[in-house]
Design a protein that fits this description.
Largest sheet of chain B: 2 strands, antiparallel
Number of strands of chain B: 2
Strand order of the largest sheet of chain B: 1-2
Shape of chain B: elongated
Strand content of chain B: 5-15%
Distance between the termini of chain A: 36 Å
Number of helices of chain A: 14
Helix content of chain A: 40-55%
Strand content of chain A: 5-15%
Shape of chain A: globular
Oligomer: heterodimer
Helix content of chain B: 40-55%
Distance between the termini of chain B: 55 Å
Number of helices of chain B: 7
Largest sheet of chain A: 8 strands, antiparallel
Order of helices and strands of chain B: EEHHHHHHH
Structural class of chain B: mainly alpha
Radius of gyration of chain A: 21 Å
Number of strands of chain A: 10
Chain lengths: 367, 172
């Protein structure tokens, strides 16, 4: 089966929902695991990487969780397919650059994804919409426990699971939540908030992980330390901070509406204006404006419009998805035109934001 | 105060990270801070930074002038300094001294307290059981309860056999 046929259509992917998904777009838990007898992928020779791939693939295929999964070697995927996987947050940008000896396995529901020979032999991750860190960890823990019966993990009683980079040593866990924080950005509170989160030993990164920009006001918060703390404690700490960020974001939105309603309306109205009327728009600008549109939907300025509209646009206006949709290769200029056209078409049925705003909807989510 | 990266210019950027009861401090000059991406709070993590500057120095100090090399995979101290990554699981033993301080500065502790593979956990449990049984055995002998001692001795034998079996798993 091709990747295109396997992946859920963007419209469906955008409708996935979970607790607090108004602000927490998704939760993810990743485990790094290596096999005792093999050098780490970055140091292994190609033959060793291939041998590991051959050993690990059948072990993964035997898991009940991965029946009917999409399993493919990275050198069998087109550059466009790899980019699509990155845009869906299923593989890292580093993994997309890998060739022979690396691969991925993705379950039918797109909630479990295993990268083979990324920085570690196995990088497995559980993904959930909304704030579901514990659920993601429970699911991944089970997969890991099943795998340890058939694979000889590199484990040390003192240091725990051994990983290529000492920053992942011990539990090998990286738990993260992807947050949409336009309120904190607009009220200029984001920098101090990031700093205080950093002080708690958590990392704040951009949309695509390490070293990326916070496009569209989307931030990833994750644990940094992996040794000397249990998985449950790490997840609990992250969850606490995420819940606090959630509260901060809701407060920021409420106080912006109360104190500076014109500024908020201006931003959202302009975003709508540009998106609904542009004929050329770059991906970065589109994402930042779609973020404001999403905020408008959250604040009830677009009655009848569902959040999945902006979330789907967020996905399909990214370069690889755009080209898949058009079924042809497009250069950057062409993409900017096609993107604008697509957004204009989708916003045709969306009426411009109402003003003045109705009383803001209750901050509490119905979950 | 001098910058802890270039050790030359005056440090003007002071970073503190508190995790639990541990405090990490880094002092940088403008330029080094910029190079390390400290100006961009979203792209910056103290662990990466600490790894970057601590590694080279500590690896050298621990080696004491001798070039270390992993016997299993051939990874050298120079490779470690360059990559900030290790070559194979055995490297953790080879470079244990060099990594010790680094791990301390990077993590909450230096001892793993999380998940343990079930097979190993069983081994640990069995070892603990043998210890307990041996204590009871000594006590039984002391109290001249020889019937009880015989039962305990058999139990220890059985547990020890289990341990020997577990030590040679049939794994690929």
């Amino acid at each position: 089966m091709t990747l295109e046929a396997f992946l859920a259509p963007p419209a469906e992917a955008a409708r996935r929902s979970g607790p607090h998904d108004r602000i927490v777009m998704s939760s993810r838990v990743r485990l790094a695991r290596n096999l005792r007898k093999f050098p780490f992928p970055g140091w292994a020779k190609k033959a060793e990487r291939m041998a590991l791939y051959e050993l690990v693939s059948p072990a993964l295929a035997s898991l009940p969780e991965l029946q009917g999964a999409f399993a493919e070697a990275m050198d069998h995927l087109s550059p466009l397919d790899k980019q699509i996987l990155v845009e869906r947050h299923l593989i890292s940008r580093e993994h997309a650059a890998k060739g022979a000896g690396s691969g991925l396995v993705l379950d039918r529901n797109e909630t479990l994804c295993v990268m083979i020979n990324e920085e570690d032999h196995l990088r497995m991750q559980a993904l959930r919409p909304g704030l579901q860190l514990r659920q993601a960890w429970t699911a991944l823990d089970a997969v890991d426990s099943a795998l340890e019966k058939v694979l000889d993990y590199a484990f040390d009683a003192q240091l725990g699971y051994l990983t290529a980079c000492p920053t992942n040593l011990g539990t090998g866990i990286r738990a993260s939540a992807m947050l949409h924080l336009p309120g904190l950005v607009l009220s200029e509170q984001i920098n101090p908030v990031i700093q205080s989160v950093n002080k708690l030993g958590l990392a704040v990164r951009g949309l695509y992980g390490e070293g990326t920009e916070a496009l569209g006001n989307v931030f990833q918060v994750s644990n940094q330390m992996t040794l000397g703390e249990t998985e449950a404690a790490i997840i609990e700490r992250l969850e606490k901070v995420v819940l606090q960020l959630l509260e901060h974001e809701e407060n920021a939105r409420a106080s912006l509406l109360e104190r500076r309603p014109r500024m908020v309306l201006n931003q959202i109205g302009r975003a709508y204006g540009v998106l609904a009327n542009a004929h050329i728009i770059a991906s970065k600008e589109a994402m930042n404006l779609l973020s404001l549109l999403r905020l408008g939907v959250d604040l009830g300025l677009f009655p009848g419009v569902d959040r999945s509209l902006t979330d789907e646009l967020f996905l399909i206006t990214q370069p690889a998805h755009l080209q898949r949709l058009q079924a042809e290769e497009l250069d950057a200029d062409q993409r900017d035109e096609v993107r604008a056209e697509l957004i204009r078409a989708r916003l045709k049925s969306v009426r411009r934001p109402e003003s003045p705003p109705r009383p803001p909807p209750e901050a509490a989510e119905a979950d | 105060m001098k910058c802890c990266v270039c050790k030359n210019r005056e440090a003007t950027v002071h970073l503190t990270q508190i995790a639990g009861d541990k405090v990490h401090k880094v002092d940088l000059c403008e330029e080094c801070a910029k190079n390390k991406g400290v100006n961009d709070p979203t792209g910056f993590s103290l662990a990466d930074l600490l790894l970057g500057l601590g590694a080279a120095q500590q690896v050298d100090e621990a080696a004491g002038g001798v070039e270390m090399r992993c016997r299993r995979c051939g990874f050298t101290q120079a490779d470690l300094k360059k990559a900030g990554r290790l070559g194979c699981p055995d490297c953790y033993r080879t470079f244990a001294d060099a990594l010790e301080g680094l791990l301390k500065s990077m993590h909450k502790g230096t001892r793993h307290v999380g998940k343990v593979p079930a097979a190993l956990r069983q081994v640990e449990d069995t070892r603990e059981l043998i210890k307990q049984l041996q204590k009871q055995l000594a006590k039984a002998i002391e109290e001249e309860q020889f019937e009880q001692a015989a039962v305990l001795r058999d139990a220890i034998k059985q547990a020890t056999a289990q341990l020997a079996n577990a030590a040679t798993p049939n794994k690929p």
